[in-house]
Amino acid sequence: MPEVQGGAVAIIPARGGSKRIVGKNLRSFQGLPIMARSIQTALASELFDRVVVSTDDPQIAEVALAHGAEVPFMRPAHLADDHATTRAVIVHALGELAEQGYLPDYACCIYATAPFLRPRFLRDGLALLEQHPQRAFAFSVCGFGFPIQRALTLTGDGALTALYPQFRDTRSQDLPATFQDAGQFYWGRRQAWLEGAALFSEHSLPVIVPRHLVQDIDTEEDWIRAEYLYAGLQAGGELDL
Fold it and tell me: Is the pTM of this model over 0.85?
């Protein structure tokens, strides 16, 4: 097989053994298997030479193929348990693709349960990496809704206290902005993934996503909230690809 170098690949991790929401990656979300929405967004961005799903589950593989993704390998069981890291899954995928002669410059991990992801944010991430060759990653973040420096915690006897007492009397507008991982996608240079460069570090650049387009989906409560939010945003035309 001739070697193909350059370009970009989307890798969507989707294991079959989800615990907190059983069958999460195949569960219908607003009329489609939720992972199909990530596949659609990746394809709609027109950034990727290939959109690949990494899975250990034949049914997930079948659905992925039906919605336009590739499944050129199956993920081994030791990378499909509760302890497997995202980086390990991406490194495995890149290794399998390399054995098949494909060596992309960029790999973008897109989570299977990211129905609010829009193609424009994927485009922004790749553009950032192309503009900053000294950086390794670019990924989605959103601002905290309230300054984390003013967070409260509980004492041993159940009373409230400031988590960061030094900021107790600091005005919110005088505190620096802080961000959280939005859990949608992670662009990275192929070598950065393989060499283990730290993701949450100065190696990375932020793609800032509005908070109303971010929702973790880890519990049944999260799922219900996400469906209501999606329906509202769709009615307002904010989810057009």
Answer: yes
State yes or no: pLDDT of 1 exceeds 60.
Answer: no
Q: How far apart are CA 33 and CA 232, in angstroms?
A: 19
CB 35 within 8 A of CB 60: yes
Contact at 8 Å (CB) between 136 and 126? no
Q: What does the alpha-carbon distance between residue 230 and residue 161 come to, in Å, rounded to a whole number?
A: 36
Task: Name the 3-class secondary structure at 132.
Answer: coil
127's tokens? 């553009």
The tokens describing 84, both together, are: 């497997």
- Cα–Cα separations (whole angstroms), residue 173 to 98, 177, 212: 49, 9, 21
pLDDT, one tens digit per residue, over 113-149 is 999 999 999 999 999 999 999 999 999 999 998 999 9
Q: Are 53 and 14 within 8 A, CB to CB? A: yes
pLDDT in tens, 34-89: 999 999 999 999 999 999 999 999 999 999 999 999 999 999 999 998 889 999 99
Contact predicate 80/15, CB 8 Å? yes
CA distance 115 to 36: 9
CATH 3.30.720.10 applies to domain 4-144+179-235: no
C-alpha 171/C-alpha 156 separation (Å) is 27
Q: What are the residue ranges spanned by the domains of the chain?
A: 4-144+179-235
Enumerate the β-bridge partners of residue 32: 29
